[in-house]
Amino acid sequence: MSTPTPPGWYPVPGTGQERWWDGTAWTDSHRQAGLVNDAVTQTWQVAPGPPPPPTTLPFQPPFQPGPPPGRSGRGPLIATVSVAVLLLAGVVGAVVWAVQPDDPKKAGPAPTITVGVSTPAASDPPRSPSPTPDADDTSADDTDSSPAPALQLADKAHGWGVPLPDGWTAEPANERATVVEIFGQYACEQSESLCLRGQFAVVADSVDAADAQAAAERAMTDFAAVAFGTLRTHREESAGTLTVAGSEGWAIRWYVEPEQGAAGFAVVAAVPDPDGSGYVILRGGVDDDPKAPDPAVLDDIIQGITTAS
């Protein structure tokens, strides 16, 4: 059982104000919360604090409280908890309102969140200055991400340095080739010896020809049959000039399909011999097979040849 609530000022949750209860119903009288009075007849004194907030939240209807509950032995505790719950609800409502779009019927799409590490473009300025390592600080050497230079084989006959790609093996020079590089030996049906997934060589003897193009075309006809066996068909994929160790030559690329064994790519280049005696033939091939190197490796070898210092 409860007793009637006596007249007095009671807080209006979420507004910072109080409203007068006359004992039976709410009146239209409001005041700022925080006023202190020692007796009913004393003048109200405003406690120090910030200016009073508006009586209503933006775009929110004014709070309409019901009559305060009657007093009982648990009245103060219940009233305190109720006020706290209403204040929390008001704060949550204000936060929810703040994040809503202006027009709820035209809400924009949810943002896409990307988590990752971004690498700035070369033209972009650095986001923060990089520290300058001390003279005796060797940690900078450990973080150098520059790729290691490719190994080079010395072609003493022509005065060249020939790149050796990663995973390839250098074979001893012989009377027919001053540089020999191979990749992936495997047993094959069309040959009693092992076949190769990739090969490259610098032919020892230069050839006479009217020009580099004629020398390359003639050398391709011979090399394709030697490297892949009797051909069933072939097609020329590209041909044109190129520069090797500062000299202009001619290169041809074929895709070949032999009667037996794996199809593949053959590349032949002819460049002027440094001693002026004719044209040096550079030739290589790779199988068209997942276990074989990328055909572009032959271009890297030829175009990576430099004049030995």
From TrEMBL:
Residues annotated as transmembrane: 77-99
What are the coiled-coil residue ranges?
none
**DUF2510 domain location, by residue?**
7-33
- Keywords, comma-separated and alphabetical: Membrane, Transmembrane, Transmembrane helix
- UniProt biased composition (Pro residues): 50-70
Region described as Disordered: 50-74, 101-149
Where does the record place Acidic residues bias? 134-144
Pfam families, sorted: DUF2510
Q: Any idea what this protein is called?
A: DUF2510 domain-containing protein
